[in-house]
Amino acid sequence: MASPRLSFRNITALAPMVRVGTLPMRLLALDYGADVVYCEELIDLKMVQCQRVVNTVLQTVDFVAPDDRVMFRTCEREKDRVVFQMGTADPDRALAVARLVEKDVAAVDVNMGCPKEYSTKGGMGAALLSDPDKIEAILKKLVAGVSIPVTCKIRILPSLQETVDLVQRIERTGVAAVAVHGRFKEERPRHPVHCDYIQAVAQAVSVPVIANGGSLDLVKTNADVAEFKRASGASSVMLARAAMWNASVFSSQGPLPLEKVMEDYLKYAIRYDNNAFNTKYCLCQMLRDKVESPLGKQVQAAQTNTEISKAYGLQTFYQHTQEELQARRDTSQTSSQPERPVMDGDVTTMAIRREYPPQITPKMFLLEWSRKEKLEQPHYDTVERSQDRSFQSTVTVAEKKYRSSLWEKSKKFAEQASAIVCLRTLGIPEGRIGEEDSGLVSKRKREGKINGSAEEKRKKLHVASIPETVSSGVAVETNGDHHRAEQP
After folding, report:
1. I want to staple 269 with a disulfide (CB 3.0 to 4.6 A). Which of 24, 48, 213, 256 is the partner?
2. Domain total for the chain?
């Protein structure tokens, strides 16, 4: 049965969750009363390389990059209420991404309001505001090319008339709604939001207009949402920072104690295996001026979800969840069929995922096996893909060639991937995690590698143990990308 089409005319409040819109935070906002949630802005260049993967362990749909990073994760619970927000400057690429995610989201949004350099230097975000022809081309391509609603988010232009003219042109593309952030491109959250601009736009078009930008000045509780909506004349209200600080701002029953909100969020983060550094960042944003409290310092010092769980007294919940996930993982591995090799010309290919420890690599196993069989040393021929600087390697062993069909983020990973394809095709141990010791790599070499790896890891941990603080311009690692988080 087809998903119900999302109507932006019947929405009171939305949670765009820009910068930290990972699955746990989105589900939390829905729990507390948000009508619709947006993911964090994801760049089309990265998303277009992704593969759609059904994650039977987490019960999610993951969009996985060639380097195995999950760029976007969603689940059935939010399917009809999550909007996929992308950064793009190219109509064809935008359509390719929209079609990739179309079956798993309720709508697609183009962010034309982000003023950050990582977005504008590529012609995306607020840079599009000075190129209305490209805006029109992107939106028309999307509206005609996908079956779900298309929306966009803009900032206001230097004059009121310019802003109205742009939104009227956007309306003619057939979009389902337009979100208007009531600040100029050069303004930041400390500047007051221009409700008069949003109101003028809302009066000039018939498409639903979503008011954005009121978190600091206008919206501190759920009761303020209706007032912001009235003052701006908009159809609905979009919140980012207010929702990030306390997602219960959407609750009609009033805000909940912050301790309750943080605990609810952390349970989702554990349940969906959220990136630990993103979890830390979100919790620190909720703590705000209490980030230097004993709890805040514990959170800042934590390096894993295990340590974060301990800080909140959720060790038992964490352990039970891990046991449940492991049980699903075991069931999935038992029922799954092994990857089959496919011939690509004279090259044996296979789509593989890395599952080996860093100290004993597949290349070591392949080299030792080649020596044992008195063959020439494996030869690796590696190429780089220019558009995203990804790598793919072909290894030649006994005059036969092997290659992973997936591209990797480094030459080293690409070579390891080709070694795995060769080893799996030949039925040779590869040093996979959980694999019994085959004796192929000598004990002396194993211990030498392990000791060296331990020393390297110790040095890295020393660097990583420096506590993160929430300050202006702190780096944020989400499940999809690195963003610069702007503080109020």
Report:
1. 24
2. 3
2 domain residue, yes or no: no
Shared-domain flag, residues 73 and 162: yes
pTM for this structure? 0.72
From the candidates 50, 114, 284, 422, which is the catalytic residue? 114
Q: Which domain holds residue 325?
A: 259-336
Q: Are residues 199 and 61 in the same domain?
A: yes
Same domain assignment for residues 301 and 397: no
Compute the average pLDDT of residues 301-319: 95
Residues 28 and 154 grouped into a single domain: yes
Check whether 312 has a pLDDT greater than 50.
yes
Q: Is residue 478 in a domain?
A: no
Q: Mean pLDDT score of the chain, rounded to an integer?
A: 86
Q: Which of 216, 241, 256 is the last residue of a domain?
A: 256
386/416 same-domain check: yes
Which two tokens mark 5?
């089409």
| Residue 341 pLDDT grade (very low, low, confident, very high; cuts 50, 70, 90) | confident
Same domain, 324 and 229: no
Same domain, 289 and 383: no
Query: What pLDDT band is residue 236 in, cutting at 50, 70 and 90?
Result: very high
| Distance of alpha carbon 106 from alpha carbon 139, whole angstroms | 17
Could you tell me if 238 and 275 lie in one domain? no
Active site residue 152: no
Please say which residue of 336, 352, 384 terminates a domain.
336
